[in-house]
Amino acid sequence: MVTIENNCFSIPQICESGQCFRLDAVSEDTYELLAGSRYLKIGIRGDPAETAGRDGNAHANGETVLYCTQEEYETFWKEYFDLSAPYSDYIGLIDEADDYLKSAAGFGSGIRILRQDVWEMIITFILSQQNNIPRIKGLIRTLSERYGKRRETPDGGTYYTFPRAEELSRATEEELRELKLGYRSKYICQTAKMITGGEIDLDALKGMGYKEARTELMRLSGIGGKVADCICLFALHQMDAFPVDTHIKKVLELHYPAGFPFERYKGCAGVMQQYIFYYDLKYR
Length: 284
What we know:
- This protein is α+β, with helices and mostly antiparallel strands.
- The chain has 2 domains: about 1-115 and about 250-280, TATA-Binding Protein (2-Layer Sandwich), CATH 3.30.310.260; about 120-235, Endonuclease III, domain 1, CATH 1.10.340.30.
- It has helices spanning about 10-15, 70-80, 85-90, 100-105, 120-125, 135-145, 165-170, 175-180, 185-195, 200-205, 210-215, 225-235, 245-255, 270-280, and strands at about 1-5, 25, 30-35, 40-45, 65, 150, 160.
- Strand 2 and strand 3 (about 30-35) form a beta hairpin.
C-alpha cells in the first residue's frame, strides 16, 4: 500500500477528464483502474475534487491510497500517473490576465496526464469517435471480455486484460460489428493488421517527436488529426499535443479568438487542454 499526498493529484478528476476509460468509481471513496494487463485498487481520503475551488489551491487536500507494493509503485504506477512532474509549476505559468484559464486550472488542478499504453490508446480513441464516455467504457469492456484474458484481482474478483494487437488481428469485422462497434469495426481490424504486419512500429513511435509521431499515427485506419493528438498526449506523453474536440473548439472561439498562446505553454499545452476540457465539461 502506497499513500500519496494530493498535491495536484485527484483520481476523481482524472477519471472524468476524458483521457482514461478503464478507471471507475466502485464506491464514494474507492476506484478501480485497469491498465493493459494490470489492476489497481485506489482509495480516496479527503478528495480535493469535493472542495475544488477556482483559486488553484484546492489541490493540496487529502490523500490517495494505491493498493500496490512499493516496488510496483516505483516501477510502474509512479510514472503512469506522472507523479514526478511539477504540475504546480505548470499552473504557475498561466498568464495572470487570463481569467478563464486560471479558473479552469483551479477547478481541475488535480488532473495529470497519464502515461498509458500506446496500443490501448489507439483502439480506445478509435472507439471514442462520435461516442460518449459511458458507451466508450462499455465497448472497451466488451472488447476486453471477448478478446482479452481473464484475471483475478487480489481480493478474488475478476477482470479482463486489454486485447493485444495479435489478438484483435484475428477478429473479423463481422465479429466486431456483433459487439456493437459499428463502423469502427473496419478501422480496428485494419489497424490491428497494420500493426501486426509491421507497417507501423509502436516502439518506434515512442522515440519520435510530436509532429512525426502524429503523422505516423494518421497512417492507421480511422485515425485523423484529433484522434492522433489524443494518442500523442495520453500515450506518448507529447505534451505539446492539444486535441481539439467540440468542447475545446467552443472555448477557443469564445475566449481565444486571436488564437491560443501555445508559445507560452510550450511543453505543457496538453495540460492546459485538459484543464479547459474538464472545466467546460463539468462546470459550464
